[in-house]
Amino acid sequence: MTTDLLKKIAETNEWWGIAPELLLGCSALALLALEIVLPKKDHRFIPHFAIATQATVFVLLLAGFYSGYEGASTFGGLLQHSFLGHVGRVFFLLSSLLVCFLAGICLPRSKMPRVEFYHIVMVVTAAMMLLVQSNHFVMFFVALETLTIGFYVLVSYYRDRPLTLEAGLKYLVMGALSSGIMLFGIVLLYGAVGKVTIGGVAHTGFEFNVVADFLRQNPDSFLGIAGALLVLAGVAFKIGAFPFQIWIPDVYQGAPTPTTAFLAVASKAAGFAVLLTLTGTVFAPLQHILVPVLSLLAAATIIFGNLSALTQRNTKRLMGLSGVSHAGYLLLGVVASFTVEWAAAAVWFYLFTYLLASMAVFGVMAYTAGSDDADQELEHYEHLAKNRPFLAAVLAAGVGSLAGIPPLAGFMGKLLLFVAAFQAHLYWLLVVAVGGVVVSIYYYFGWIKAAFFEPVTVGTASADQSASAVPTWVGKLVLGVLALATVLLGFYPGPLTHWLPFK
Amino acid sequence: MNPIDAQLLQLAIATPLVAALAIALGLPKRFSTKLAAVAFTVPALIALWLWKEFPAEGAAKYFFASTVDTGLSGFGIALKLGLNGVALPMFLLAAIVGLAAGLYALRSGAERLKIYLMLLLIMQGGLLGVFASVDIFFFYFFHELALIPTFIMVGIWGGRDRNYAAMKMTIYLTVGAMLSLLGLIAIYVKSGATSFDLETLRLTLAADPLRVSLQKNIFGLLMFGFGILVSLWPFHTWAPLGYGAAPSSAAMLHAGVLKKFGLYGLIQIALPLLPAGAAWWAWKLALLAGIGNVLVVGFITMAQRDLKQMIGYSSVMHMGYCFLGIACLGITGPGGVVLLMVAHGLSVALLFLLATSVHHRTHTFDMSEMGGLAQKTPVLAAFFVTGTLASIGLPGFANFWGELTVFVALWKFSPAITAVAVAGVVISAIYGLRAAARVFFGPPSEQLQKVTAAHPPADMGWGERLPALLLLAALLLFGLFPRLLSHTVDQALSQPAAMPTATAHLHR
User: Fold this and answer.
1) Angle A268-277/A137-155 helices, nearest 10 degrees?
2) Nearest CA in chain A to B69
3) Looking at the partner chain, which of A406, A422, A452 has a beta carbon nearest the beta carbon of B152?
4) If I label B290, which of A21, A158, B460, B481 is the partner at 20 to 30 A Cα–Cα?
5) Alpha carbon distances (Å) from A405 to B23, B142, B164, B166
6) Helical ranges in B288-328 per DSSP H
7) pLDDT (mean) for A227-236
């Protein structure tokens, strides 16, 4: 990087384009500083500070403060600001806010330090926000690694529990493997493009549009195809697509509930944001190979996710494995996006409904969990409707939306994806997806059944629930808003459909 | 026609839903029951008013139309409401049965009455929405809205085997709903109309019909999708089980009204939009329904000992006549089906209500453990016998005209199948009258004597009589003056290009 470039960046005020990420990163550091500076009794305010800064950035983003850069390319082509990037930023901030809310419920139950959790969540969020805007494989990989390494820590946060440590180790090994695979793919592409001159950041074999140009001219280049497939394999690990879903159940169960939620929602969405960017720009010329490959992947993911979720009794594993099937439905949208332009918007719509529903469910899980975070069985939900009707109602809205039952928001998400798939002529994939939806009703309904219907078996001792928390009014408010939004978006999806670029 | 009528139609659908929301948000029980009573009554009054306001001519068009954009207009989806000649009787049916089921639920003394009423209200709102939707997406949407509470009600307030029944119903009906959704989306995508509006779709497809092979495929999807929802043999097993377990008001609304969704969809959507597909499937449907629903299920019904399951099976059997009428294509067959749907909806709701009333007095559904109840409860016996006669199709009740019209159309379609269908009437007379005899006449069984000694049975109170009277009055009204219904149905179906005729498209 030459000094000229730095000068140019300083002159053009390009930093302002990533002000939200900078703000998040700086306040994440400030959290650590505050922990040293503040007296111990005031430490409880640090999470509030974390949430407040994120909320501020969120509001500023929504208000359109940083939208001046839309369509622009900054930092010598490292970043490309687009409207979908903006959507991604909003999404990741919203999910990190909710994860911090969950952390406020769960973390006090353990003896672990709390501030670092918020710190890492904010750094990871900033990395995700950069990831969706990256336009350069180096930037892409650095952002992705920042995110992944943050997750290594978050997953193994309860370091005194064996299950958590096992989860952490599994995630570390699988994550490192996938990073290696992806890096190998990037290097192959770089080599294939064949410009080894490092004359500046711009116009190397790392830039998305340069790679895209190369692939357009040589759509049958073996190195190009191999590189693209390897990169996509790395992304498939993030979204938990078959056959890279192998880590999901154990990691989801062992990780602290807020981390599980973060993994399930934000990490998966980051994977899909990347996938949409890659298939939409860099790998668009490889459509003839990627459509069949991704279709197969989607079908296998849907089938595997649903079948493996059928027999789960542990709710965290259930969320993980059913999340695999959701990744499959989303992949359907990604495949459709090759031919149907608005399918990308449909994928985002689905992700937003998935966020609302999953976070509502994870919220209920956080409140019903006992002292052992990994031990959350369906049996623990028996009598929930009688003992805690509010939580049961939120659970019903969330689980119902995940199952795609009308009139909830999740149904609208599935509908839009299916319509897109129809227009893209993916008929056999649709049949698989619909079959998957029907199967999924069984296990989601089983959860509802446990919470609402009278139990058939009497006397199964529920685990130690004395530690489970009672929702505060803030908790009730957040969960209530999530559930209500899930219901209202089903009836009136206007706010999302007008905002997302469906046209 | 008043300009306010379109708003009234919206109000009829919104009232139960808003009341349900108010109850969900924690209205005290005292107000909840009153609000629920109001919310069940308002749609019924509006439905009657709209019936009166409905123009005498041109019923093929939609009246009282209004459109609300819910943010999906980019996909050609908008909440477009309106009633045509076929939708009007169904809307009226939903309002009447809803009122009866609501009144009965208010007096049922169910546990957690508030939630029970809330779910019933959601169901009622969905049902009214189904028949008032011109947009086929919302047609499906409202159906699901009404369907979900059914599962929950079976699961929580159900009787024997409720967990199994709720699960089985959920899976069967979800499969059916998903298949029909695929069919509806296929119509939307393939028609090129980029709209879910039924009127637009009809115009587009009338001008430029789909390829015949495509029509066959989509009609097949819809036929089996809707068919599962209507308990087409051999996908009917959820119905008797589910109705046997369901609490009475839910069974009344589901068997009486919600189940008609599939038939209504076939008549309003599948037949006019996919004429060639309908012609190709007609014989297959007739065989499935004629042999499966009417004959096989008819014999199974005769073998039932459980009163409520017997009514469940009989409703599966009567759906066979409806499928047969649809298989006739043309005007007479489907028209007869609309009459039969209304009649059957009223009569089966009445029978489910009375079966529960019987259960309150005998504490069993097993007919072999009953007998002689007529001496203690003459009014209940009178209602039951009348309801049974109506369901068999005795002249003077609405069912007669529905069945007669279907048989007339069926004779032209195939005399052999007509013979099967008429044999079905004999079967239903056998099991219906035998049930009435076993429950109410003859000497009481030993178990019953014990039960009645412990709990002396009272005759029907006004909480039971009022809804039963309501249903019976409607049955008699439409039985004595069938023209009240058939007039608009006839107009709606006989409009050119609205219905395929069996001959016109067979030779394509």
Assistant:
1) 170
2) A494
3) A452
4) B481
5) 22, 12, 20, 15
6) 297-302, 307-327
7) 92
Question: What is the rounded distance in angstroms from the CA atom of residue B45 to the CA atom of residue B443?
Answer: 44
Note the pLDDT of residue B245.
Answer: 84
Q: Which residue has the tokens 């403060």?
A: A65
Record the tokens describing residue B344, joined without a space.
């059957």
Closest CA to B296 of B411, B392, B424, B388: B424
Give CA–CA dist A311/A80, Å, rounded: 44
Domain boundaries, chain A: 305-503
Q: Which residue has the tokens 């997406």?
A: B137
Which of the four pLDDT bands, split at 50, 70 and 90, describes residue A26? very high
In a domain, B502, yes or no: no
Flag whether pLDDT at A79 surpasses 90: no
| DSSP-assigned letter for residue B1 | -
Sign of CA dihedral B344, B263, B322, B209: positive
Nearest to A407 among B145, B181, B185 (CB): B145
Element (H, E) at B64: strand B63-68
Nearest residue to A404 via CA among A345, A363, A448, A357: A357
Q: Give the residue, B351 or B192, on which the prediction is more confident.
A: B351
Chain A residues close to B70, C-beta within 8 Å: 491-494
| DSSP 8-state secondary structure symbol assigned to residue A266 | I
Q: Which residues contact residue B356 at a Cβ distance below 8 angstroms, ignoring those fewer than 6 apart?
A: B248, B308
Q: Decide if A502 and B188 are in contact by the 8 Å CB cutoff.
A: no
Whether B504 is in a domain gets the answer no
In order, the DSSP letters of B363-411 are: S--BGGG---HHHH-HHHHHHHHHHHHHHHT-TTSHHHHHHHHHHHHHH
Residues in A closer than 8 angstroms to B71, CB to CB, are 492-498
* Overall number of domains in chain B: 1
Model confidence at A115: pLDDT above 90:
no
Q: Is the ipTM of this complex over 0.85?
A: no
* Cβ–Cβ under 8 Å, residues A494 and B70: yes
b/e per residue, B286-320, with b = 16+ CB within 10 A?
A: bebbbebbbbbbbebbbebebbbbbbbbbbbbbbb
Domain hosting residue B379, numbered range = 5-494
Q: Check CB contact under 8 Å for B175 and A438.
A: yes
Among chain B, residues having any CB pair with chain A shorter than 8 Å are 24, 69-72, 74-75, 140-141, 144-145, 148, 151-152, 155-156, 162-163, 166-167, 170-171, 174-175, 178-179, 181-182, 185-186, 188-189
A240: left (phi over 0), alpha (psi -120 to 50) or beta: left
Task: Give the nearest chain B residue to A497 (CA atoms).
Answer: B71
pLDDT in tens, A199-219: 444 556 778 888 888 888 888
Measured in degrees and rounded to the nearest 5, phi and psi for residue B442 equal 80, 180
Number of A–B residue contacts, CB under 8 Å: 80
Cβ neighbourhood burial of B370 (10 Å; 0-12, 13-18, 19+): buried
Q: Which residue has the tokens 């119902």?
A: A400
* Residues B156, A453: C-beta atoms closer than 8 Å: yes
- The reply to whether residue B185 touches residue A496, judged by beta carbons under 8 angstroms, is no
Is the distance from CB of A256 to CB of A164 less than 8 angstroms? yes
pLDDT exceeds 50 at position B508: no
